Amino acid sequence: MASILFILVSFLASVVGCICGIGGGVIIKPVLDAFGLYPVSTISFMSGCIVLSMTAYSVLKAQLAHESAIEKGTSTWLGIGAAAGGLAGKQLFDVVKGLFEHPDTVGAVQAAALLAITLATAIYTANKARIPTIRVKNPGVCIMIGLALGVMSSFLGIGGGPINLVVLYFFFSMETKTAAQNSLYIILLSQLASLLLTLCSGKVPQFPPVLFACMVCCGILGGAVGRKINKKIDSQSVSKLFLGLLVVIMAICCYNFFRYC
Question: What is the structure's pLDDT at 217?
Fold first, then answer.
């Protein structure tokens, strides 16, 4: 029964993640943590791989269909920074994990950090129409912003999450759907770098292979379904879905924080 729920969560999170441009890991990670069936490091690895598969499909499909709204210059610099940040975030996770006697206690730290980020994101999103935006063009600044995004997403094991959209709204004045596509591109580069580091360092945690393969396939399928839905709804509907999702994520984070403490 738990395996079926894991697969269903991977699919639904990937659908919503593709629509909103948050990758899906921000849902998968806290929800699977809440089940308490696998160590935090295993869940982080599985979540990252599912997000990688979904974003790879979504970005490639958009390119092949000539439907890409990715701003190659800006987002590539952000992606380079996010990739470097992804490596740093993975190292940070290992350091924080080593600070506690019980390895899974790091889950409480992740839950608290994700709760704070999600709350700040919800407040900004609800008021973004009244907040002036800017347009960053300097490559060096883009790399630094991407670096911060990569560290947070990799440490939290969420792939990218809501913070990507806020950054793209505020610092680059992107419209909702454009921001969603660019966010997926940044997440792809960040997660790819994080996975390569994990593989090269030989720190791949133990995981159930069959379940993992099914979840990755559902990530790709969710990306395909999410793309179709995204085409049929407007930016306002995407924003409403995003806000509702943030509320759910915050509730799960609160539960996980007290469970790990």
Answer: 95
